[in-house]
Design goal:
heterodimer, A: mainly alpha, 66% helix, globular, B: 401 residues, alpha+beta, ten-stranded antiparallel β-sheet, three-stranded mixed β-sheet, 26% helix
């Protein structure tokens, strides 16, 4: 078994036995990545909301900690937390802002890209955020989404198609010279 | 009817048995999904998509463009979290912690069945009486004499058959997992260990844990020796090499890189262009460590000692290698390893020989890195151990299978 997964299961068992030290370790290990993911899903400038959603996701995890180790189907705790955070985000009733302007690949329009990713709903948005900002490989994206690799790649492809149509509308934008 | 119903109804545990025997297969990837996976993996390893991949696939064009924008996004660490988020989350979760389980108490032993303390049992006469004369002095003398004889034999063996001394201080040459030459470690040297506060007792800890995503400056702040980076361009024969740093990772005891020790791993993307041949690329790993023993296994491959100016070390080429971070290199063709030491610093290069990281390339790279002039002799002469004018002398070519 992967040592990281082994550590996650051991920490979960210790938390279930009432160990505060194990809880501290879990929070230190996973708070920053989960917060980063939530921030990218909600969009720039929503730091407070992202903090609340992250905290709620950890709270959900704490309530379900006894059900975390699931034999062969146990996923690393970070992806489990990302799944819980994704559910929390889906429950939020956010106003959809206007479409941002075109995404430029000069590096100046990072904010535009973050807003565009934040506007995407469901698994497509989650897949795009994990692939672009989390720099996750395909198998980790599927674990974090809780779907098969095929479904994860399909969601990512759909999200990219949508992004391409919305932000690179002109065919000439697809050329490499542009 | 009742028996029919019993047969048709699912028996207890049937579902579990069905799942165990007929595990649902993951759906096979289609061509489009496989292309997307490959593109994602390629971008993650730092290699941009080429036009042939993106042709007639607008989603991959979009992915390539968005990836180039997204790589400027900051990666929030613990320091980037909103103030008090960590403490507040911890306080909130602590309230949900279950009460620690009480330690199970040992039950007082119960008396055996049929035994009552009210009945007086008279002392029985023992049949096996201990000897009245003690043999302790004789035993002590015998133990002393045995120890003396064993010590004298060991001293005599070491005098007549001394273990071969290694020419290296930190590089430890091994054969089939056994150390074949004693290294010259400083007296009183102790291998660095992780502090007990970051090692849990419940999980076996991987000592050589590398934390990546550091740039050059941050990596340098974490280690206590100057990191030596590779040159960005190099030409060997008719091949031009470009070396781009993908990632600098530090050896650390914890997941956050806060308790680092003197070890760094650099991951380079090496691009090769030779006139008349296809453009090639591969990866090269460079490990640098200070005051740490670096084992090199010489079994199943070509092994030779190498001297480059003031640097000395070993070159090994074979098909199975375990690198310093514990990763097994197998099934990747021929692996080349060059380990060089100077003072208390050891640099180890690991790459794939059949992908272009050959002995000639590694030696040329090390020469350029350390400012050692190229040899005037031909490579064939160097391989056979002919000393060159500048002191570069790969010698003692041996093959052990």
């Amino acid at each position: 078994m992967d040592p990281s997964l082994q550590l996650d299961i051991a920490l979960a068992n210790e938390i279930n036995n009432g160990s505060r030290a194990a809880l501290e370790r879990v929070v230190r290990r996973h708070l920053a990545p989960v917060y980063g993911y939530v921030l990218h899903r909600l969009g720039p400038g929503k730091d407070e909301l992202a903090a609340r959603v992250t905290s709620d996701a950890f709270d959900d995890a704490m309530r379900r900690m006894r059900r975390y180790p699931r034999g062969d189907r146990t996923v690393p705790m970070r992806y489990w937390l990302i799944r819980l955070a994704t559910r929390r985000i889906a429950r939020l009733k956010l106003k959809t802002p206007k479409h941002s302007d075109r995404v430029d690949d000069t590096g100046d329009d990072l904010r535009g890209l973050q807003e565009a990713v934040a506007q995407m709903k469901g698994k497509q948005g989650a897949a795009l955020a994990l692939a672009l900002f989390g720099e996750m490989p395909p198998e980790e994206i599927s674990s974090a989404l809780g779907v098969s690799r095929k479904a994860a790649m399909r969601s990512l492809r759909r999200a990219l198609r949508h992004m391409g149509k919305a932000h690179f509308a002109q065919p000439e934008d697809w050329s490499l010279d542009g | 009817m009742a028996s029919l119903r019993r047969i048709s109804l699912p028996l207890k545990g049937t579902e579990r048995l069905r799942r165990a025997v007929f595990k649902p297969r993951p759906p096979r990837l289609g061509k489009a999904e496989r292309k997307m996976e490959e593109a994602l993996n390629q971008l993650r390893s730092g290699v941009p998509l080429n036009w042939l991949q993106m042709e007639d696939d607008p989603e991959l064009v979009t992915l390539a463009r968005l990836y180039s924008v997204a790589r400027h996004a900051p990666r929030p660490g613990l320091e980037a979290l909103p103030p008090r988020l960590q403490e507040d989350t911890l306080d909130r979760l602590s309230k949900r912690l279950p009460a620690p389980k009480p330690q199970p108490l040992k039950q007082a032993p119960t008396s055996l069945a049929g035994f009552s303390e009210n009945v007086t049992v008279l002392t029985q006469a023992e049949e096996d009486l201990p000897p009245l004369v003690t043999t302790a002095p004789q035993m002590a003398v015998a133990l002393f004499v045995t120890t003396l004889v064993v010590t004298l034999l060991a001293v005599a063996y070491n005098t007549f058959f001394p273990a071969p001394k290694s020419p290296y201080t930190w590089i430890e040459v091994r054969e089939n997992g056994r150390v074949v030459a004693t290294s010259n470690l400083p007296i009183g040297y102790k291998a660095p260990v992780c502090p007990a506060s970051v090692v849990t007792n419940t999980v076996p800890y991987v000592i050589r844990n590398y934390i990546g995503a550091f740039d050059e400056h941050k990596a340098q702040e974490k280690v206590d020796f100057p990191i030596e980076y590779l040159p960005t361009l190099m030409t060997v024969g008719s091949t031009d090499y470009g070396l781009g740093l993908i990632e600098a990772a530090i050896g650390a005891c914890d997941e956050f890189g806060e308790t680092a020790y003197s070890n760094v791993r650099l991951n380079y993307l090496v691009t090769m262009s030779t006139p008349g041949q296809r453009f090639r690329s591969t990866q090269l790993y460079v490990f640098q460590s200070r005051q740490q023993v670096v084992p090199v296994e010489k079994t199943n491959g070509i092994f030779k000692d190498v001297t480059l100016g003031v640097h000395k070390g070993v070159f090994w080429e074979g098909e199975f290698y375990r690198d310093y971070s514990g990763v097994y290199w197998s099934g990747r063709g021929t692996i080349s390893v060059l380990a060089l030491e100077k003072g208390d610093l050891v640099t180890t290069f690991v790459g794939q020989a059949d992908r272009g990281i050959t002995e000639e390339m590694l030696l040329a790279l090390a020469r350029k890195m350390y400012g050692v002039a190229a040899p005037t002799a031909t490579p064939e002469a160097a391989v056979t151990g002919t000393p060159s004018s500048n002191g570069t002398r790969p010698a003692n070519r041996r093959t052990s299978r």
